[in-house]
Amino acid sequence: MNRRISAHFSSLATSLVLVLLVLSATTSFGRADSDDGIVRVKSAVPMPEAISRIKADIAAKGIKFFFEVDQSKLAADAGIKLRPSTLLVFGNPPLGTQFITANPNAGLDWPVRLLLTQDDNGDVWAVWTDFGWIAKRHNITNREAQFKMATTVVRSITSTITSK
User: Fold this and answer.
1) Domain boundaries, the chain
2) What homologous superfamily does CATH list for 38-161?
3) Which runs of E-coded beta strand occur in the chain?
4) Is 88 within 8 Å of 68 (Cβ atoms)?
5) What's the CA gap between 157 and 6, in Å, rounded?
6) N- to C-terminal Cα distance for the chain?
7) How far apart are CA 105 and CA 153, in angstroms?
8) What are the Cα distances from residue 148, in Å, to 44, 96, 132, 141?
9) pTM
């Protein structure tokens, strides 16, 4: 079982390194713009399609999908109007638990949370917390490669919605 996970992780890592090289050529793709650690990527497709593409890519990568929260529906059920907003929670336990073993408080930020939200102009955005920011928040200094891998994975996943 351990060998199978290692082989899968190694294959995934190789693929994702290639994706990172391509994405790093685009300077504005998925970077935290401020001190709050928030990364935003604009979608080229409507919310339902963005959700569908992201969930399909998560499944194709063999990443565990935990759950989806339709925040706008929850708001509507409470009598509150909210623009479309859906939270997707997913992760790769062999990778994600590396952060929690470094600092148990990192469990506040794992598994990965990806928010899809629509702004007042109708634009759809994929939003997540920058993993470097998470490392600083939890004073994790010994998992640099793992944080880079997590960044690569989420950039790859969100790249599925940046073109029609």
Assistant:
1) 38-161
2) TT1751-like domain (3.30.310.70)
3) 38-42, 64-70, 85-91, 112-118, 124-129
4) yes
5) 21
6) 39
7) 22
8) 25, 12, 8, 12
9) 0.79
